[in-house]
Structure formats: C-alpha cells, structure tokens
Amino acid sequence: MVERTKYVLDEADMPARWYNVVPDLPEPPPPPLHPGTREPVGPDDLAPLFPQALIAQEVSTERYIDIPEEVLDVYRLWRPSPLFRARRLEKALGTPARIYYKYEGVSPVGSHKPNTAVPQAFYNAAEGVTRLTTETGAGQWGSALAFACATFGLECEVWQVRASYDQKPYRKLMMETFGATVHPSPSELTASGRAILAADPGSTGSLGIAISEAVEQAAQAENTRYALGSVLNHVLLHQTIIGEEALKQFELAGDTPDVLVGCTGGGSNFGGLAFPFLREKLAGRMDPVIRAVEPAACPTLTRGKYTYDFGDTAGLTPLLKMHTLGHDFIPDPIHAGGLRYHGMSPLISHIYELGLIDAVAIGQEDCFAAGVRFARTEGIIPAPEPTHALAACIQEALRCKETGEEKVILTALCGHAHLDLPAYGAYLAGDISDHALPDEALEKSLAGLP
C-alpha cells in the first residue's frame, strides 16, 4: 500500500471563518488598560492606531467571524496549505510516534504572516487609510505586510530590529521589492529611536523599540495606521485558519493529535494552530497536550512575570496583562529574530495561566541541530523560529522511542529559511552558541514591573 505523505484540501474546502477562542474559555482574559487612567481602553483609545473593523475584532465575543471574500481571494494564492506526515524524520529517529507538520512556508513570502497581513491591509484600505507602519524582527512580518500593502494599494513603512536588519539583508530587499520603505531600528527618524541611540549608540534593537518607532509615526501622521504582526487578539484570530484547515486534514488522515507543539514569540503562529484544537479539547472531542516552545534567550512564559506591561519600549501602547520580561528588556541577538519579543500574547498568557497549555524553553544550538536534521530528512530548511518546535517534537518522538508509545505529534512549520541561510552557515561553521538568559539580567529587567 502506498504511504501517504501529504494531505491537501481543495480550495472549495478552505475555511471561510476565523475562530475566536475567547467565548469558549472558562474565564475571559483581562482587558488592556489605559496607562494614564488604568481603566479598560475603549474603541476611541485605539482609533489612532487601528481601523474600526479590527478594533471590533480585538474585543469581539463572537465565536466565529466571516472572512471577507476579498481576503479569501488573496488567500487562494497559497491556501489551503498542506499537512505533511514526516515519515522520513520518523524513520531516521526510529520512533513509533507519528509526526505531522502544517507547512505555512508555501505563502508568497514563505511564512504564516500573510494570514493576518492580508486582512489587516484590506480593512485599513476599506476605511480610507493610505499608509501602514510596522515593526519586524527577522523580516517575515515586514515582508508579509509589504506584500499585503502592495495587494491593496497602500504605502508600507517598516522599522526592522537592527540585529536582524544586519543579519538578514535579503529580507530588506524582499520588502523593498514589494514597495516598502525599511529602516533599521533604533533609528534617528523618531523621538523614541533617538532616545535609545543617545543612551546606547550601538544598540542592536528589540521588537519593543521598533514597535515604539512605528506607533509614534502612525499616531502623528494623517491617513496612517499601525499594523502588528503578533500578540493582539485580532492577529491570532486571523491565524486560526491554520488550525481549522489542520482539523479537516486530520479527518483525511484518520488521525488525532496527542501532542501539539508550536514555537512562540508573540504567539500568532502558536495560537493559529492551537486555538481550534483547544476548542475541540474544551468540548471533550479530543485531549491533546498543547505545548508552547520559546527561546531560552527570551523565555517569557517559562520565566517572565504575569503582570500588566507596555507592549513597546517607549510606553506608547496600552498596558497589556501578559507574561513579560519587562518592556526595557533587550534580548541577545539570536538568529530566531521573530521570537525576540519581551512579552507574550495576552490571550496565550491567560490560557497558560488557566493551565490549558504548557511551555518549555530551548537553546538555539539544539534548535539548529533539529533544523538540520529536519532538512536532511524532510527536504525543507525550516526558519530559525520553528526549529524550536521541531526540537521539542524530536524530544517527544525520542521519548516515544523509549516508551514504545505511538503518539501522534503535530507542529506548525511556520516558514522556510531560504532567506535565513546565513544563520545555518553560522551553525555549520560552529559559530552558534546558546544565550540562556542569566538570572541577574532577568531580575534587572523585571525590577520595574508591578
């Protein structure tokens, strides 16, 4: 009998609704607070940054939200994305476990990020916005928003974390090819950037700093709004098309996951895969362990504090209840730039506090080893970010080898590394080292939090 490798849905079977996990949770998540009044923020507080449609989605209590046809039309360029059975990796590991991965690297920019960039650009254009500003780390998000803005005729201006700007020049070229303007962050173009450079002229930057610069520009310019690639509820909502497709594909496979693993930085990739499966778990239809995997250098869930904090370094955003390392935290310049954020999604932080998911942190040496192993068996070089999830998948599969358990493991391979090959070059040359966050650095970054 021929062993099936991939499970592909027809375009007609692509989900037409996003899933909002909030109505199904045992307790609602804490609201964002206005930093001045400490009262929950209202729509007027968010209007300078986001269009009304996205504000409504951010606070929605509806279980499902219809995807506009204009967005579905763009999604069809790459969606539905395939679900693969990693049979060659299973064989190489000698494990009885069955490993599946949902592959989002088939999108135009090679990652899951257009799942939210496209609707964000669409809703902004529909309300007359002509320019979007944003931050990006590794450049996956900036590339996605540049693509989405080109699709809907918007200008796009991106502040890229300096460490990644220097490490990943081809991401900058991709963004510029789509028509975006790209600045290294911190920059001299904003008051927040200039303040950081005055204090530390050699700053390698952080996502928090880049957010401050992009938000500052959006708040000051007419017909300009800000777009965020992770963290907020509406962003995770848009990504749930990943998990909704995967559920249908598991029906084709005749299987059910026992363990679901996803890398986490801000949380969009993880939430996009996990939330539809969490719905099924809460309804008693399946019972997978759901595991978030983060870098040891930026361990928000495993070592951060659950408290209200700013989403950016300069304190321009509302206060968010989340697992945080402190908005002043500057992570080491590890190659998984998309996971170098000081805070975790408030929604994922809340779900973690409810005990519905668990979390682990892994060093980048183990992650790159997993990435190389995956590439040499499955033929896809994974972006540095999902190597964290792959490392955890391999650990789980090897445990199954010891116990004889035939567990079903699912992960989201959220992007390829075609523009991240210098990171693999450094690993193969022996120039990659782990950057576990020292206790004293953590204590210092948490010192100012309530």
SSE topology sketch:
Elements: E1 6-7, E2 17-19, H1 43-46, H2 52-58, E3 64-66, H3 69-75, E4 83-85, H4 87-93, E5 98-103, H5 114-126, E6 131-136, H6 140-152, E7 155-161, H7 162-167, H8 169-177, E8 181-185, H9 191-199, H10 207-220, E9 224-226, H11 233-239, H12 241-253, E10 259-263, H13 268-282, E11 289-295, H14 300-303, E12 305-310, E13 319-324, H15 346-353, E14 358-362, H16 364-378, H17 387-403, E15 408-413, H18 421-428, H19 439-446
Parallel strand pairs: 5-15, 6-7, 6-9, 7-8, 10-11, 10-15, 11-14
Antiparallel strand pairs: 1-4, 2-3, 4-5, 12-13
Keywords:
alpha/beta; seven-stranded mixed beta sheet; 450 residues; four-stranded parallel beta sheet
Protein described:
This protein has 450 residues and is an alpha/beta fold. The chain contains 19 helices and 15 strands. Strands 1-4-5-15-10-11-14 form a seven-stranded mixed β-sheet, with helices on both faces. It has a four-stranded parallel β-sheet with strand order 8-7-6-9, with helices on both faces. It has a two-stranded antiparallel ribbon with strand order 2-3. The mean pLDDT is 94.
